[in-house]
Amino acid sequence: MHDGENIMVVLSSPSGVGKTTLTKKIQQKYPNFKISVSHTTRPPRSNEVDGIDYHFVKHEKFEKLISEGKFYEHAKIFENYYGTLKKNVDDSIKKNDIIFDIDWQGTKQLSKFKNLKLIKIYLIVEKSELKERLIKRNQNTDEEVEKRFNSFDENIKHWNDYDYILINENLEICFKQIENIILSHKKSSISFQIVQ
Ligand code: 5GP
Fold it and tell me: Ligand 1: distance of its center to the CA of 12 in Å?
């Protein structure tokens, strides 16, 4: 997967759809893909490691980075800031493909940078299934689960900002669909280089 121009894949979805699992699966199978590690003011969960899952920072530090124009994109989600540092992306894309696990607000902002060649994928599940998944993954309090569930309708309004919409009914099938998308873009960037 490393012969053509490196690509950037954005994966967005309402909370609880399985995006983080799919992102990690892609990276495991294709080590050339690096997951973009965001900055956030959200406190780490018990299984999360600073610098691997996120760069966990204080509110003041995040706001300083915003005022210095260091982010490609940032958003406030469920009362916390999340953002993608320009430097991390610019360094990483020289050698690797990148996968972004970010929300629709960030995707909109990233899309304005015409130098970034993005492949934007939006994942959904049936709303009736979502609550069960949010509870099952056991990462959030009841109040947080409710907030995440209630944000579903607002979130899916933005599906048409994306290049592909996938329904994650079955993890393996959805993974295969993402792989096909990635491989087809990799191939077209290789033939683009040969024509050049
Ligand atoms: P969580 O708190 O569950 O890790 O993430 C909450 C939401 O924040 C998810 O939808 C995730 O995709 C989004 N998110 C994570 N990092 C970023 C980022 O850097 N920018 C934006 N805009 N959203 C992010």
Answer: 9
Quick: pLDDT tens for 180-194.
999 999 877 655 445
| Residue ranges around ligand 1 (CB below 6 Å) | 15, 38, 42, 73, 75, 77, 82-84, 101-103, 105-106
- Extract the tokens encoding 146: 């409710």
Polymer length of the chain: 196
Report which protein residue has its CA nearest ligand 1's atom 23.
Answer: 102
**Block residue for tokens 């996120």:** 54
Residue type (1 letter), 184: S
Specify the pTM: 0.89
Ligand 1: atom nearest CA of 104 is 22
Q: 8-195, what's its fold? A: Rossmann fold (3.40.50)
Sign of the CA dihedral running 20, 145, 165, 37: negative
**Coil, strand, or helix at residue 124?**
strand
| 196 CA distance to ligand 1 middle (Å) | 37
Q: Domain residue spans in the chain?
A: 8-195
